[in-house]
Amino acid sequence: MSRFNAKYLLLFIILIVIIAISALFAQLYSEHLPLDVLAITCYVIVVIVVTFLALLLIPKLFTAESFKGDTENISAEDLFSFTHDPSTNLPTAQQALRAFDSAIKADRGQRYAAIVFKPINFQHVNSLIGYHNSDLLLLQLAYCLQKSVAANKKLLNFAIAPEPIRIARLQSLQFLVFYNLTDNRFDDNSVLNDVCQQIAKSVPEAMSFKSFSLNFELAFGIAISGDNGDHFDEIIAHAGDALINGLKNNKQINYFEQSSIVYNTDLLVRMETLRQDIEDEKLFCYLKPQINITNHHIIGFELKVHWYENEQDKPLGLSEFFELAEHSGGLYPLTKFMLNKALSTIAQLYSIGVYQRISVTLSNESLFEVDLVDYIEQQLAKYGVSGKYLMIEFSEQVMLNAGSRVKVIIDQLKSLEINIAIANFSGSYESLRYVRKMAIHQLKINCQGLTNDSSNRVDKAITNSLVTLARSMKIPLVGTYVDKHQASEAYISMGGELMQGDIIHPGVVPEELEIWLEKWYLQHPESIPPEAKPSIY
């Protein structure tokens, strides 16, 4: 019988007894039996005492200890399994929540930093050796991490047992530690960076299972209580956001920034306006010609995009509204818009017998879209053009930060005969290694700072070495932002031949491309391609 039912059954029995005794006294009184005042008084006292004792003793009689038979006592093993993750033997997020709440309630003035981290190169392990075997590697990793921080008393202890456990397991592959910053006399970031480095160094160089070996790399996201909220869920969410943003920007340690979630009304309006303009294709596109200055041959065009925000006179370039497009969710639709514009222009050139490459600059995020290559293949078929006249351009930093992923994308694009260009090429050893490995078709360097005097010797020396290097590697090198005659003369004096910039043309709108080509060919007849139709010149 449950505690609730037994309690009220006893109350009911007591009530029946009282009613029965009262009825007996009433019956005796109705028969005019001799009942003196003393008997009636005793009866009233008994009823009051019984009622008082019932109200006083019943809650004590029906406590949890009285009904131990209803539930089983939880063993130490069961308690451990309820509060710990089975794959790593580390406390769960629920256990971490209880420990954090207890620490905060003990002293309201405390400041904690939540550090959320994960192994960033573990995802492919499951597909290679299976979930069961990969869990053994994860257990090995968790053991090494916990062992390295167990003696650090500044880290919050999540354990119920006497031995401290200072790391908890969150969802997916994420782990959590809390660092106490209350009495910190040094810079918060410096202290927290040291903690992250300590954790990162605790990972063995190679962790092995059977014939599989893996070098773990950790990435960290950090949020500080008070600065980034005081509630457990809030601070953990902020640290997780910092981790995700750090992975996007290839940062090992990244701090949560309050500004990343504070969007005022004006910014939200701008985001919605841009998203709608991208959807309605209300962006301004133009083409920057790329010329071989020695023979005036056109080697291609680069597609540029401007956005006139609220019909302002001065437009914003792609680099100026790129981040806004990313936050508004319009970055990939923008990429599709640019690709469609480039391919439709290539088809337009086909119709007049001109076959020139058009390059499209892709952002880091757009380059790694899952269906990017499939979409390009569909659009090539739609416009009936060959992939060899489309060039995909991305920054050197993307290649360096995600080399293996970039190579996969490049190989897929090359299967469609699409050319690849690297912008802002630096000529570093690491860059050269990837350029040779990936067989890049074109390199670009920024010539904006070039002058024909001695005022900028360093930039001139770097550009000169890059021109020589590209020539020895037999890779076309295009000097961009050649907007002044001084930059053009300096670039040519170094041996540069291919260039684009305002000195050639500030930009041709696709609708007037045929007119510009006609003027260019009339001015430079030697640059007319043999397959061009007579109508354009």
Automatic annotation (TrEMBL):
Keywords: Membrane, Transmembrane, Transmembrane helix. Residues 267-521 form the EAL domain. SUPFAM superfamilies: EAL domain-like, Nucleotide cyclase. It comes from the Bacteria. The chain crosses the membrane at residues 9-29, 35-58. InterPro entries: Cyclic-di-GMP_PDE-like, EAL_dom, EAL_sf, GGDEF_dom, Nucleotide_cyclase, Rev_trsase/Diguanyl_cyclase. PANTHER family: CYCLIC DI-GMP PHOSPHODIESTERASE PDED-RELATED (PTHR33121:SF79), CYCLIC DI-GMP PHOSPHODIESTERASE PDEF (PTHR33121). This is EAL domain-containing protein. It comes from Colwellia echini.
